Structure formats: structure tokens, C-alpha cells
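User: These chains co-purify. Model them together.
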Amino acid sequence: MYDLIVVGSGPGGYVAAERAGALGKKVLLIEKGNLGGVCTNRGCIPTKSLLNSAKTYKHAQEGAPFGVKTENVVFSLADAMAWKEETVTTLRSGIEFLMKSNKVETVTGEAQFIDPHHVKVGDTVYEGSYLILATGSSPFVPPIPGSKMEHVLTSDEILELKEAPSSLVVIGGGVIGIEFASFFSMIGTKVTVIEMMSEILPMMDAEFAKLMRRELKGVDFHLGCKVEEVTKDAVLYTDAKGQKQSIEASMVLMSVGRRPNTQGFESLGLDIDRKGVVVNDRLQTNVANIWAIGDVNGKSLLAHSASRMAEVAVSNIFGSKQMHMRYNAIPWAVYGNPEAAGCGITEKEAADKGIPVLSQTVQMRANGRFLAEHGKRAAGLVKVICHKDSKAILGVHLLGPYSSEMIWGASALIEAELRVQDVKEIVFPHPSVSELIKDACFALDHTL
Amino acid sequence: MYDLIVVGSGPGGYVAAERAGALGKKVLLIEKGNLGGVCTNRGCIPTKSLLNSAKTYKHAQEGAPFGVKTENVVFSLADAMAWKEETVTTLRSGIEFLMKSNKVETVTGEAQFIDPHHVKVGDTVYEGSYLILATGSSPFVPPIPGSKMEHVLTSDEILELKEAPSSLVVIGGGVIGIEFASFFSMIGTKVTVIEMMSEILPMMDAEFAKLMRRELKGVDFHLGCKVEEVTKDAVLYTDAKGQKQSIEASMVLMSVGRRPNTQGFESLGLDIDRKGVVVNDRLQTNVANIWAIGDVNGKSLLAHSASRMAEVAVSNIFGSKQMHMRYNAIPWAVYGNPEAAGCGITEKEAADKGIPVLSQTVQMRANGRFLAEHGKRAAGLVKVICHKDSKAILGVHLLGPYSSEMIWGASALIEAELRVQDVKEIVFPHPSVSELIKDACFALDHTL
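Assistant: Joint model of the two components:
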């Protein structure tokens, strides 16, 4: 009899198991594949490893203005993949160690759900007081003719490539599509992105998304286009004007979205909708002892959202205080070249929700460190959005170097409900790109 | 008749002029050299430009594990210096533009102080209601035999080098000394640092400083040593055991400290001590209409401290509210390879002040992004210090990549008086090195 059975060991599941184990609970963690789930094995981590390799390649080629001359700069995809594998393996052992040190039992195999208190793996039935579902999501492959051909890959398979394709068409301009577009473009593949919507990266401020497209040099974008068919060497689509078009493609990446892994949940009596398992703001399902966290509940498909949901759920089950999951200060990042990150609302979201806001955008090239490292012709933006009346910070948007490592501070500002005036009193280190956040706040309000 | 005369156009002076100008005041800014002061012309900015060049050189040489092979990687100091010059020139024009757009009048020349309301430049006497002294500091050259020889440079002259020396002895292991040690070591100079104290980087946590020395590969350190004499080709010193020693040096950098520029203040009737112009916590001197900000008051010799002091002083003179200068959340950063940054107190400071604290250190190699970009043998640390009882965050210390761009968030945490529990509820982006700050908070308190 376990206090808690967790199904799925991604950043939702393993964190839930760890936190519950740290509280002294008897925890079983069931994983059918590798510990770490998509994030560690086929998502966040391997893509960041590859992007770092590609950026290293690019910087080695472009050092001349800074005084660094190189010759015969060669990219080895095999070596980059080997480094990526080592990174993934190390992190996987890290999670294994974390489970052991928190006395979490792990079992490998497919979970079969018997009822809300019983889960079978192989021939063994496990009983648990509570069940946390953290089964994640899988790439969605739309039923387009030709989409099952061998050269049409999802993010899972493309991470196992032995050779870079000469040309790649990315179907879907979300985060996954854009990161792979940036990676392959940096290593010399001709890349085209086809997106059904009128802009890429839907969570991003429109002005930033436009600049992102411009800065992804060497990537062609076709927006407002509907893919009709994939053939042996081309992708056929209808463009924004209704014209039939075709692009050559030796490889196709299908990155139109992900679907929650809810297969096998039938016996649990759960409410499930199109987005996943329905949960309340405490992450509890309609079945009192079952909780659902991470991609499978469809609330926020980000690794760190899953980890935070794990903490909220475990706190609500075993902890000393009841928590609500908050979604207003969850950052996101795109790790291509350039990087981008954001936290909080965009102006469009504010308008949609009827929230009156003020916003100011500053150019990164006004910043000393950015200039020193990128020069006055490089592009980058920082935007801060505040409530029109209270001046509370509601959104911070970044496009440029260090974005992914600066954005956590924005989460802190929004969580702490700081106002523009408060941020103006924070001392930022000079010179740093982060100073632009303060500059944007002064642009919002010049007074002292 | 000006509302305000500002003397010195560094990050203290130009920000004071800008903010007062933005409030509609009639402002005169006097500068004897180039706009931007030491920071822009001979400090923060040029060093960061050069360090970026050196890091680019290093990364180009060390890309093989990530899949990037290069040949004949050559560093051109001349090209790096030219890029640095362009950066400085661009920023200088930026400040010029800022002054114009805020209707600040600027005059070039040495300020001669007649009395608290009158300053003469050349033949012209200017009258002002208020005076802000922002004259900065200068490198201190101790009266050591040989310290005036031509190959003994300060940070001013070393930024104009045409050729890298074969060997360099850095006298003084503070931030300036360590940044230059890191730079020259990366570009192939044999570097030795001689420090009088028992550890380098006095503001840094002792454990971090030790790791920093270890990670500055190729730099030799001699701690607790007193330099006795500089000769044509060597530096003679007494080591920690009292033994006479000698190190070969084709060039010597003197970076033992800086002295406030208080020359010419005699006619103002100011209280001046060894550290500089004495000010209260509102940055006002003993003469009611004179304020002193930045290095010249000796309170905190950092560019961003000077800028913050400018805002505080201008607010106290012209603004709508009275402000006190707070020093407890001012970050610092060292931009060498590796980077380091900190904000708030160290354990030693806490002990000295009798503040009961808890602290936890986490290794960067436990982090996904760090592993992906540096591997499991690389070193890096994150330490969080909180008050033992209230659990308020009092200090954050970082050593490793992105430190300088992550640290602003720590300033926000301390300014907002967040506690460990609050930081645990902040969602950090995954994967990012910044997550380690949250990990350290969980190490301080495992409960949910």
C-alpha cells in the first residue's frame, strides 16, 4: 500500500515523487520509458544541448569583428548528438539518484489503471491512497496525405538524426518548430517554416514575433498557409491568398501541436476534454484521490509548469497548506538564435481581457553590454507592460541574448506584485543587458 | 543661473543630469574628459568588450566536444581593441544624445570651484542653486620603488595596449585585477596575481573566491604577499611566510585600489575623509546645496551604485519624495571566465554583524542547462543565504555562466523582502541555470 502512486516521470511526475518522498511518504513512480520523460529525453534538454552546439558553431564563424579569426570551421552533427546523449544520460542518472535519496520506488513498464486505487504494471498490482497522473503529451500528427512517410518526422525522431538534411520544411511555427528551424538553419540546412496562423509563436508579443522572424536569418516563413499534402520531395500547401504552392523538402518536421496522453484512463471515471484531464485550480480531478499535473491536463504545456503543478498537488495532498495553481507569472523561453523569453501578459491578452495597460519597448542596442557583445546594428527588444492605474508589472517580454536567464526575475516581480516605481528602485548591475528592464520602467514613468 | 550644476559625467553624473533634465530643470554638466567618465571610457564598458572578445576566442578553441572543429584560431588584440573603441564611441554618442534630449547643457573643461554656488570652467563662471559632485575616482599607485616605470600600468593605460605582453604580474586581486588577469590569461599571456590579503575578491563569499582562483586556469596566485619593488623585468615581494620572492614580469598592472577625486574641493568647505566626501544617507554633504554621488563619496565604488545615487540625490533635491540610499541589495559582477555575481550579504558579513543566517550551496552541475552547455566536470556554485528566523533572503551568490545577467532577480528578491518560501513559489524557466536559485531555496527548506 503506497501513500502515492505517480504515473509518468517527466518534470511533473518526478518532482511530485521527489517532493512527496521528501515529506516521508511511501511513493511509487511508474515510467514506461526512460526516467525524465519527454523533457529530459526528447525535449527541453536535448534541444538545448543541440542549440548550444549550433550557437558555438555560429560564434566560431563570426568572431572576426571581435578579433577572433578562425579557419575551416566544421560542424559534426554526430559529435553534437554524442554530447547531447551524454547530457541526457547524466541528467537521467541524476533523477535516478534523486528518487533513491528520497526513497521513491520506481518501476518500469506501462501502467494499466484498474480503478482509482489500483494500478497494474506487468503482473503486479499496486495499491495507492492517492494517484497523480503525469503522463504528459505526444506530438500530434495531423491526417494530411503523406504525413506518415519516412522522411516526415516529429520532434522525437528528429533528435536521432545521423545526418543533417539539405532542406527541411517545418510545419508549425510554435516553440518546438522554431527551435528546430533555428538549429538546422545555423548548421547549414535550408529551412522553411509553414504556419497556419498569421504569426509564429502565439504566446509572443506580435512585434517581437515579427522581429524574431527577421532575425532567424536564412529561414523562410510562409504564414497563414495550410499544408495539403506531403510528397516524396515536397510539401504542397495553400497560401494566404488561396493559391496552391509547393516547396522542395528532403525532410519534414511535423510540429503542429501535442496531444495529452489520456489513453487507458477509461476505468478511472475521469472527466476528460479535448485539452486533457479536467482539473480544478488545486489540480484535483473529479475523482477525489486522483490528481493530474503537467501536459496531460492541458493547462500549460511547459516543463516548469509541470514541476510547479507537482509541488502544488503534493502540497494539497500531503502538505501543510492548500495551494492554488497560479498561471499569471509562468515564464517561457525560446532558445534559438536569437533567444526570446516572456512572462505575464501581452498587450493583446490585456485587450482581450479588458485590462487597461501601459507598455514601453526599448531597443537592446541602447545597452552597453549588448553593444559590446553584438554591436549597434544588432536587434533586440525589451518590453514592460503594467496596469494603467496601479502600475503593477503585468508582463515582461525579451528578445535577445541572455533572455532565458534574465526572465526569472520578471517572474519574481510579477509574483511579488511589484509596481513600476518599485522596479525603478531596484539596482541592476552595470553593464548588463538586464538593465533594459529598468530602462523600460523609466520609459513608463520618468518621474523620480 | 542653473537649477543644478553636475560635475563629472560618469554613470553618477550623467544620470543625475538626465533625471534632473527630465524633470524640467535647467542643468549644466561639466566634464573635463570624455562624456561617460571612467565607466564608459576606461572601465566597465571597454573591459566587457575585451572580455567578450577573449571569451569568443576561447569558445572557438574549445568547441570540439560540442561538435565544432576549428583550425588556426588567432586572436588579434588590435581588432579587439578596435571593436572596443567602436563600442565606447557609440555609447558616448548615446550619452550625448541623452543629454540633448533632456536639454542638459554640457561644457568640456576642468571645473574650478569658487564657492558652493559658483563653478568656473576656463574663463566662464557658472552659477547654480544646487551642485552635485560626481567626480569619481582614480587608480591608486602605491609608493613602491619602481612603480613609476613605463611597463607598470594602471587600468587606464592597459586598455590602450597595442600588443599583449608575454608575462603580466597583476598587483591586487580585486575585481579590476581579476578581470584583467582573466582577459590576458585567455589570450595567452602568462599571468600572476599578487594579493596582500589572504583571499582575492573581498566582496565574494570565501568558498566562491577559492573556486574562482581554481577556475582561472593558467593564472598563478600569490596570496598574503607584500610587493616590495618593481624592477625592469621582475616584481619582488615578501610572501606569506616572510620569504623574499621574485617573479618575472614583462608588464605589471597596478590595481590595488582607487582614490576619490576630491582635488580642488578646498573652497567648498566640505567634510572629506579618507574614503571621500562625507555624505548622509540622502547623499547630501555638510554644505546644504552640495550633494556627492558615486565613487567620490566612497560608499560603493560601482557604476550602478553611482547611477542609483544620482536618482536618490536628484529625487531629494527636486523630486516629490525624500529617498534614502539603500546598500543592502546592490549587486556586483565579475565578468571574467568564469563569471561571478552576488547581491546581499555573505556569511562572513552576517557573522560580523551578528545576524543569524542559514545558507545552502548547490552545484551548477546538477542543472540541466549547465550540463548541456558545460558538462559534468565543469564547476559552478549557487548559494542562497536567508535570515535564520524570518527566512528572508539576505544574500545570493553565483559563480558560473550567466551570473551577471541572472543576478538582477536577486536584487529584486531582497528589495521586495521575499522569504525562502516565496521564492519556492516562483516558477523558473526550465531548463535554465537560474533554476539553481530555486533549488538552493528548497535545500534551505524542503517543506511544501
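The radius of gyration of chain A is 23 Å.
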